[in-house]
Design a protein that fits this description.
5-stranded mixed beta sheet, binds calcium ion, 332 residues, mainly beta, single chain, 29 strands, 1 helix
C-alpha cells in the first residue's frame, strides 16, 4: 500500500508539472518605449545579474538599461557608443548580452566585429559605464556564453562560426562551425542564413547549445575539460523552432527557445519533446521574441518586433500591432 501511495503521489506530481508548463500565463513586464509601438527601440537580448535584475541594450539610443522586475522601470546603467570610421558612423548593433561570474557585463557588437565589456562597478546609474573593447575578430558577433573556466564563446551568425577567447579577452579563435544553410522564408524573399545565433551552456557547463535560426534547430558543442571542442551535433530540429534564438535552460533541464518567426516561446524537454509554452498573433504580448532569460521559475522574454511572418501587422507591411520593443514575463 505504501509503495502504491508513493506512486500515486508521483503520478499526481507529474500531472501537475505537465499541467503547469502547458498553461503558462504571459504578460507584459515593461514597454521599452511607452510613447511608440514602432521600432524606436531595438533590443535583441536580455540577461539577468545574480541579484535578479534584468538588463537590455538598445541599439538605437545606445542605452544599457537595468530593470528590477519587482518594480519595473528603465534605469540607464551603461552606454554603448557609436564609432566613426573613415568619416562614416558605425553602430555597435548589440545582439547578445551576458554576465561573467565576476558580474561584469559583456555585449556582442556585430557592427564592430567585437565583444564589449562594462565592468560590474561601472554599471552605475550615477555615472553609466561606457562599453569598451574586450574581444576582437568576431565577425557578425551575435550570441554569447561563458563556460565553467570563464572562457568566452561568441557565435558568428550567418558564418556559423563559434569563436572563443580566454577569460582575459583579446583576439578570438574559431573553435567550431555550424554547417552553413540558407532558407527562403515563407514571405518568398527573405534569405535566412543564421545558423549560429543565441547560445547557452547546460548545467554541466560543458555542453554549449547553439540556436540555428535558419534550420529551426538546436546544436550541441561539447567542450572537453582540456578545452577541446567536439564536432557540433544536432540536438533537435522542429517546425515549431522556426526562427530559433536566445535559448535558456530552466532548473529541470528544459531548454526554452524564442521562435521569433512564430511569435512563440518553445520548450525542448531533456527527452527531446518539443512544444509551445506560449504563442500569439501580431498583437502580442510576444512580438518577434528573440531572447529568454530565466530567474527561478519565471521566464523573461525580450521582443525584437521585426515585421515578418506571424508578427506582421494587419497592414501587411509593418510590426505596428502590439506595443513594440518590450519584455514579457511568463509564469507557471
Ligand atoms: Ca512601445
Ligand atoms: Ca540573437
Ligand atoms: Ca508589434
Amino acid at each position: 500500500m505504501k509503495k502504491y501511495g508513493a506512486l500515486s503521489l508521483l503520478g499526481a506530481w507529474l500531472f501537475l508539472t505537465a499541467g503547469q508548463v502547458q498553461n503558462q500565463k504571459a504578460s507584459v513586464l515593461i514597454d521599452l518605449d511607452p510613447n511608440s509601438a514602432a521600432q524606436t527601440v531595438i533590443v535583441e537580448s536580455i540577461a539577468a545579474d545574480n541579484k535578479g535584475n534584468l538588463y537590455v541594450a538598445d541599439r538605437v539610443s545606445g542605452n544599457v538599461w537595468r530593470i528590477d522586475p519587482k518594480n519595473p522601470k528603465l534605469v540607464v546603467v551603461g552606454r554603448v557608443v557609436d564609432r566613426v570610421v573613415d568619416g562614416q558612423k558605425i553602430r555597435a548593433d548589440v545582439s547578445g548580452i551576458a554576465f561573467n561570474s565576476a558580474g561584469d557585463l559583456f555585449l556582442t557588437a556585430g557592427g564592430f566585429k567585437e565583444v564589449l565589456r562594462i565592468r560590474s562597478k561601472e554599471l552605475n546609474p550615477e555615472k553609466p559605464g561606457v562599453a569598451q573593447t574586450f574581444a576582437t575578430e568576431t565577425e557578425n558577433a551575435n550570441g554569447i556564453a561563458f563556460d565553467r573556466a570563464g572562457r568566452l564563446y561568441i557565435s558568428g551568425g550567418r558564418n556559423g562560426k563559434i569563436y572563443r577567447t580566454g577569460p582575459e579577452g583579446g583576439r578570438a579563435d574559431v573553435i567550431a562551425q555550424i554547417p552553413p544553410h540558407t532558407r527562403t522564408l515563407p514571405d518568398g524573399k527573405t534569405q535566412q542564413a543564421l545558423t549560429a545565433n543565441g547560445m547557452i551552456f547546460d548545467s554541466s557547463g560543458m555542453a554549449l547549445h547553439v540556436a540555428d535560426t535558419a534550420r529551426g534547430a538546436i546544436w550541441k558543442v561539447v567542450i572537453e575539460p582540456d578545452g577541446r571542442a567536439g564536432k557540433p551535433e544536432t540536438v533537435v530540429q522542429s517546425a515549431l523552432l522556426e526562427g530559433a534564438d536566445g535559448p535558456d535552460f530552466d532548473r529541470q533541464g528544459n531548454l526554452w527557445v524564442a521562435a521569433n518567426e512564430r511569435n512563440a516561446v518553445v520548450v525542448v524537454t531533456p527527452e527531446g519533446r518539443v512544444y509551445d509554452a506560449f504563442k500569439n498573433d501580431s498583437k502580442g504580448p510576444l512580438e518577434f521574441p528573440t531572447c529568454i532569460t530565466i530567474i527561478g521559475n519565471t521566464v523573461y522574454v525580450s521582443n525584437f518586433d521585426t515585421p515578418r511572418r506571424d508578427n506582421l501587422a494587419a497592414d501587411g507591411k509593418t510590426s505596428i500591432d502590439g506595443i513594440g520593443a518590450s519584455i514579457v514575463r511568463i509564469e507557471p
